[in-house]
Model the fold of this input.
Amino acid sequence: GGAVTLSVGSGNTGSGGDLSLRAGVTTATDSTGGSVAIESGEGVATSSGMVTIRSANAGTSGVSGKLVFSTGTSKTGNSGALTLGTGAATGGRGGLVGISVGSGTSGAGGMLYLRSGDTTTGAGGALLLSTGAGSTAGGALTLTTSDGGSSGSGAVTMESGAAAAGSSGAV
Done:
């Protein structure tokens, strides 16, 4: 099929031009705002197309652009969900989900941060790490630090938080 390209022209002064895609707003009390869908094409006999979302490389100085995947805030009720996953497979393995931090050449390596939500009422959000079920065995769960140089490898620390009243959580 034919290609469609949305592009902003280049310049030589100031910042590059912005490209914004935004769905419509509604003031109706019984309706939701418009949705945005970005989806690759289906390959009826072969693979579907790839979707790539990335920032461009940095120039001779500065950093590459930040990617922000976030839901909006909510005045009443829950905020939206953020789901990262692959589709199911009927004739092969399920897809891979990889989250990694790029390597660097100065200072400490970049941090990978997973944290559940805070609340001012009730219990804080849970964090669940679970492997997949299998017909012969469940998947393995491995927590490991990488090899280190002269200062040793990284530490593995598991601890519960402090309690203002009552017992702290068990490990």
Summary: The chain has no helices and no strands. The radius of gyration is 23 Å. Residues 25 and 33 are 5 Å apart (CA to CA). The chain has a mean pLDDT of 91.
